[in-house]
Amino acid sequence: MKINHGVTFRDDMTVELVKSSASDSDIIWAARVSTQGDRSLEAVNADPARSEGLIRFLMRERHSSPLEHSTFTFYVETPLFVMREIQRHRIASYNEESGRYKELKPVFYVPNRERKLVQVGKTGAYQFEDGTDEQYVHVINALQGSAVEAFDRYKFLLEQGVAKEVARMVLPLNIYSSVYITVNARSLMNFISLRTNRDDARYPSKPQREIEMVAEKMEEIFAEKMPLVYKYFNEFGRVSP
Amino acid sequence: MKINHGVTFRDDMTVELVKSSASDSDIIWAARVSTQGDRSLEAVNADPARSEGLIRFLMRERHSSPLEHSTFTFYVETPLFVMREIQRHRIASYNEESGRYKELKPVFYVPNRERKLVQVGKTGAYQFEDGTDEQYVHVINALQGSAVEAFDRYKFLLEQGVAKEVARMVLPLNIYSSVYITVNARSLMNFISLRTNRDDARYPSKPQREIEMVAEKMEEIFAEKMPLVYKYFNEFGRVSP
Amino acid sequence: MKINHGVTFRDDMTVELVKSSASDSDIIWAARVSTQGDRSLEAVNADPARSEGLIRFLMRERHSSPLEHSTFTFYVETPLFVMREIQRHRIASYNEESGRYKELKPVFYVPNRERKLVQVGKTGAYQFEDGTDEQYVHVINALQGSAVEAFDRYKFLLEQGVAKEVARMVLPLNIYSSVYITVNARSLMNFISLRTNRDDARYPSKPQREIEMVAEKMEEIFAEKMPLVYKYFNEFGRVSP
Amino acid sequence: MKINHGVTFRDDMTVELVKSSASDSDIIWAARVSTQGDRSLEAVNADPARSEGLIRFLMRERHSSPLEHSTFTFYVETPLFVMREIQRHRIASYNEESGRYKELKPVFYVPNRERKLVQVGKTGAYQFEDGTDEQYVHVINALQGSAVEAFDRYKFLLEQGVAKEVARMVLPLNIYSSVYITVNARSLMNFISLRTNRDDARYPSKPQREIEMVAEKMEEIFAEKMPLVYKYFNEFGRVSP
What we know:
The structure is a homotetramer of 241-residue chains.
Chain A: E1 8-10, E2 14-21, H1 24-36, H2 52-60, E3 71-79, H3 80-86, E4 93-96, E5 107-109, E6 118-120, E7 127-129, H4 133-159, H5 164-167, E8 176-184, H6 185-195, H7 209-225, H8 227-235
Parallel strand pairs in A: 1-5
Antiparallel strand pairs in A: 2-3, 3-8, 4-8, 6-7
């Protein structure tokens, strides 16, 4: 849906794998060096399935340092209120679009109809429930109205010759930004553990739904690149390693 | 200045020292242990002025690990576009006000008249110049209008029973947040080095003015707690250690 | 016991608190800022016992970032094979005695009679059992003989004008070194969790006894400075936060 | 040269690249996202030589975060006194051979004849000079004698049923260990900057020769994988970024 200045609304997150250097065999040679020294190099090109027992053992016992040699670089588009939560994870590398150096595009987040809108319970024990149609309309109207008016003001200030880094102060938290994120598998599993809400987690977490949408996409990619590690991550309670 | 819902506008940053464990003598015993072992403990309660030469030497040669034993905890209030820049510094500990768990207060940033508003030159070599009165009025009007309307929408959504974490998406980047930040002296000097614009710096930096306002207040506190280290930080080009 | 060159043998570890900036109230204001903003400052000087429920909640749920504002600086003397294990913990600051810049003292570790000397079971499931008197004598003889001969060679090379950094290559892993370590409470609890062997731990660990001796002394100091946090660290399975 | 128990002496370091995910183009897309958002993705498969000016600019201005998306995994064999220095670099991932879980091999370091053996000047301003033939013979005799006798004791204790983690305490610092190290390009350049002794460095460093031997081998690999970044690293004074 497009409005003036080409304002666009999205209800999804972009997570693309730019590159990775990650496979189940990484944690095998990384773990084996402790008991085998140089002979661990044989595992570099070996089939990790033959050492599934070792992977299971490492995950069960939370021997997590061997998970640090596998790396992933993602390209992510997400609104600023999610970007702020992502960047609280410090064991990762970020390069993000700059509101100081770049004129921002009018792309804003609005939740889809499935997004639970109502919070019940008290701090520390929140639950989320479905919103009514009326509540959903209010949310959409507020977010769209806010975005359109804010972007009008942003463009107007730029036209008046005001610096981008000043003009962007009027923009709301649901504007999208883009970022490259490089993490190792240990840090990524920590992120997935804390940013997904799963009943089978030993330490359940209650992330905001929108960062969970990012985490779920990263989890899919992780599961594909390191299937055995992923299997035992789940089997042993999705504990951040 | 107050408007409806008690919306308030500020043009300053809050930086308060909550606690610190930092003195010039810290870097003396930390450095001396390499050559003196347990005898370095004598420096714990000694007058650091007697070892000024050692401090000068360490700063000149960028021997920076001894700077990590001094810690500072700040309470900071700053708008979100600044908070985002602060939290890109990963060697620090943060706990921030949450838009998920707390109804946010209607306090918003507007620049004062001295804030340079116009950016000239090209990416990588920007300069900032004074804005005209007209430009300043445009900025104030846009920021105030945006804030008031956004906060109206935020309150309206809350009244409709919408969750705080959803309603806050309408709020603009100039809303204030509050945070506790704990850093060691090495990381703090890195922050000050990168977030102040000084001609006497060996590697000059071009931070956004608003984060520089935070950095300047931290620099004052740092200078007071570790005067000798600060002296040679300046003497040797304010290089992030 | 002294031998030639004043060679000394010790069976203990030194852990002294040089300074700390740590109390149970730290985690209260650090946690409260999320829901109370500036009102959390009231907790800075308040009695933490009145907020014991919050501390219990944070520890149970593994909300660990509020633990990062409390810092401890220890002075530690420990043999090199332990120092190597300590320094694998990366979220900490170290300054250590240097074998390049300082002539090392002839102080060496020998285990006391209680130290279990025999390893049974296989990799990943080791148990330790008491050694016989004969085994203990062999250990003492080997360690003392090795230390005395190595230190003779070290002194001889120094007398011949060989650089300290070269001469020290002959020294064995049981020679003591000294170090300052600054850590925050979160990292310290991680260290204690991984470096003590306790049946009441949710994830039991099998550290080498000598690093456990260091961890136990740090644990005592931690328990004294942050008694409520420590209480719930134990209650909830000593999980590294 | 082999002696009893197959004791072997080496005077070199092993540095093998196990894998890498690193090219000059990494820092181009990582830097461009700030000004181009999603258009930066075009740089992922583009020829980095066309953006040499940008690389030069980033290195000159010390914009270092784009260097964090390139990763290297090395397999390294080095004596323990070098391993200890390597592992003081905290922004890296390590998995090392374990003296607790593995019987160590009798491989020990001895310097070759070119290694400067004599230290002149005072702390903080050391110079190294050639040793005499006589000094060299003393060093070799001491290191070989120490290694042979220590390894005899080690084997004897193991034969008596003493645990590996106890027996290894007799071993000297010149015994080799093996380790996998994963670092990003920023951290690797910091390592190279601090661990090589070069006259063309803006901040000259005085590393121990043996860690410099490791750093030189890593530098060769780095130069091959990221030639443009490496070129400007040198042009702008080899400053750790």
